[in-house]
């Protein structure tokens, strides 16, 4: 189990996460917002085992989505809608809301999964006018309840601007940190915003999280007040990398698979596996320390018996578990961990000419002994070599759709070189070019790091 490697902490360079013993940690998250609200024990275990088997290691969950709706066992989180009165009791005949939450967190631990917990969704704070002192007491109660769980990470906030009810989030974050100092924490913001805009210098914020959101380029062009383009999620990473002090950053909510562009436009196209894969590679190659995937049906645990769910969902979550995007995310984790991790840095100096616009943009990561370049459109990649060690470079093509690699020989690690991706008959032909110092003897990209 990963708990044997010690607690999670930020790497010395302030960019990534690792365990206390130095083992790299690549966050591969899945969005399970309504897990505690809509599943039974058996269903929760089915979901957690599926995600663990698919290589995920973090599950993002709302502890409290609203104050009135009962969970699958007919329980609500608080008595009288009061954060000072959590319903936490348990007897042989009675399972409370919070004792069920305890069970699910324990299940996740046994499956080797971290749970990234949102204490209370932002809409609850807005609707009920939660006071800062009440949030502080609730945060202290939460922190003490789960401080000994090795698999807990905190997502303060919950789809809300940090400028709304700021004192609530400050008191909540500080209280949890005081009670549970060993747990990492961030802030889950509103769409097309990031935590660094409000809380970058807060002591309780260990890493930044942004929500690139669900809007397309066309939809963003009509939304003039926004300064960052949602589909260009790599721009959020660049913004966070420019902050001082350095803190890791991640896209905690990009466009979900099988959800309409813009969420509320039910006649719009739905995001596909190709789209969610692109979001993941763009963010990580721009410098994010991992990525969170989401699926429309799974995040809300929709069943056909519910009719039409949020955002036009009609599919059962159990059937959506095996959608292509969900299965392909693990290939990115395997790729990144197959080369030295902490030294990985985004790089543009290696790119000859214009990096490209929108879908055609090229991304490069550079280590001391390797280079990786991602193209979503299968464009020819022209690079300046000699930026990593070795006189000869081993050339690989890594397929993000399958996780397979193929060798393309060696080239001199000097001068300028043009690399043409393999031809495939797919609507989207994204590829990762991997160049290694040939003397290092790395295994094929995607296989465990070895020399």
Automatic annotation (TrEMBL):
InterPro entries membership: Apiosidase-like_cat_dom, Collagen-bd_put, GH
Residue ranges of domain Apiosidase-like catalytic in the record: 12-342
Residue ranges annotated for the Putative collagen-binding domain, each copy included: 346-436
Signal peptide coordinates: none
Protein name listed in UniProt: Glycoside hydrolase
């Amino acid at each position: 189990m990963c708990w044997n490697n010690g607690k999670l902490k930020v790497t010395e360079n302030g960019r990534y996460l690792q365990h206390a013993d130095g083992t790299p940690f690549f966050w591969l998250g899945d969005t399970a917002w309504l897990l505690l609200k809509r599943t039974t024990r058996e269903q929760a275990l089915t979901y957690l085992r599926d995600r663990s088997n698919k290589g995920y290691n973090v599950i993002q969950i709302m502890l409290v989505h609203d104050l009135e709706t009962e969970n699958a066992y007919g329980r609500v989180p608080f008595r009288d809608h009061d954060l000072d009165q959590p319903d936490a009791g348990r007897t042989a005949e009675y399972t409370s809301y919070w004792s069920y939450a305890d069970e699910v967190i324990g299940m996740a631990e046994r499956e080797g999964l971290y749970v990234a917990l949102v204490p209370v969704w932002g809409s609850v704070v807005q609707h009920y006018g939660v006071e800062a002192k009440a949030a502080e007491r609730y945060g202290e109660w939460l922190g003490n309840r789960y401080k000994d769980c090795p698999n807990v990470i905190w997502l303060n906030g919950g789809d809300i601007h940090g400028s709304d009810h700021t004192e609530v989030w400050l008191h909540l974050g500080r209280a949890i940190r005081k009670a549970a100092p060993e747990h990492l924490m961030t802030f889950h913001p509103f769409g097309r915003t990031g935590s660094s805009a409000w809380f970058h210098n807060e002591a309780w914020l260990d890493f930044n999280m942004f929500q690139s959101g669900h809007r397309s380029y066309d939809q963003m062009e009509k939304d003039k007040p926004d300064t960052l383009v949602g589909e260009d999620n790599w721009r959020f990473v660049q913004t966070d990398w420019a902050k001082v002090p350095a803190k890791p950053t991640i896209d905690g909510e990009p466009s979900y698979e099988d959800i309409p562009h813009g969420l509320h436009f039910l006649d719009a196209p739905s995001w596909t596996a190709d789209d969610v894969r692109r979001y993941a590679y763009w963010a990580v190659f721009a410098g994010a320390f991992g990525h969170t995937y989401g699926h429309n049906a799974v995040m809300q645990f929709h069943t056909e018996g519910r009719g039409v769910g949020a955002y036009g969902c009609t599919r059962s979550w159990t059937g959506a578990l095996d959608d292509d995007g969900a299965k392909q995310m693990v290939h990115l984790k395997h790729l990144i961990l197959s080369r030295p991790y902490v030294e990985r840095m985004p790089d543009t100096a290696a790119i000859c000419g214009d990096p490209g616009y929108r879908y055609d943009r090229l991304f490069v990561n550079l280590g001391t002994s390797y280079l990786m370049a991602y193209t979503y459109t299968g464009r020819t990649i022209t690079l300046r070599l000699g930026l990593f060690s070795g006189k000869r470079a081993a050339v690989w093509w890594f397929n993000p759709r399958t996780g397979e690699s193929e060798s393309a020989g060696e080239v001199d690690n000097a001068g300028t070189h043009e690399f043409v991706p393999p031809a495939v008959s797919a609507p989207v032909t994204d590829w990762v070019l991997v160049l290694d110092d040939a003397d290092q003897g790395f295994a094929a990209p995607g296989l465990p790091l070895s020399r």
